[in-house]
Write a structure and sequence with these properties.
alpha+beta, globular
Length: about 180
């Protein structure tokens, strides 16, 4: 069964296995902890994620964000980062949600369902009226995932497609489902 769970210290072994395997940059999803060593993981990754959620110790220009993992039963298969609000660089950049699905689970609908679960969390956090998302132009599966969650293409540039999902639409179509 799929579920979305906030990063935490109780699931440290599975979180380490997953995060250390995610490349530094894949399709614009940046993993600053790619290849991290197990002995550094608690303090240099999970503690930082906890601080990021509180907005504590953030570099200039960063906003608070909460990391969630998409679990398929006992295995993490995806990672979602929800930024709590937008600054100028996020409005014109990566937006509210960063998403990553493990290559072994792509093309099976997990990204669409995971984004749906992340959107349910995002509308409870963000103050904006729309959720902002971005995907590389050549990342058609991500674009389809966004559009499949009631998104519309807001604009495009040479490298990216910018998608918006109205929060009202999310509340009507997603929050009416049972919480997992």
């Amino acid at each position: 069964m799929l579920s979305l769970k906030k990063a935490n210290f109780d699931d440290i072994d599975e979180e380490f296995r997953f995060i250390s395997s995610v490349p530094y940059d894949e399709n614009g999803f940046i993993n600053e902890w790619a290849g991290i060593k197990r002995e550094d993981f608690r303090e240099k990754c999970l503690a930082v994620m906890a601080d990021n959620e509180k907005g504590s110790g953030l570099p200039e220009g960063y906003v608070p964000e909460t990391s969630y993992f998409l679990w398929n039963d006992e295995q993490i298969i995806g990672w979602y980062r929800i930024r709590h609000y937008l600054c100028e660089s996020l409005v014109n950049g990566s937006g509210h949600i960063g998403q990553y699905i493990s290559p072994h689970f792509r093309g099976k609908g997990y990204g669409t369902k995971g984004l749906s679960l992340a959107l349910r969390k995002a509308v409870k956090i963000i103050p904006e009226n729309e959720v902002y998302l971005r995907a590389h132009r050549d990342n058609l599966p991500s674009i389809r995932t966004m559009l499949g969650n009631d998104g519309y293409i807001h604009h495009e540039d040479d490298t990216n497609v910018y998608v918006r999902i109205p929060c009202e639409s999310i509340k009507q179509s997603i929050l009416s489902l049972p919480e997992n």
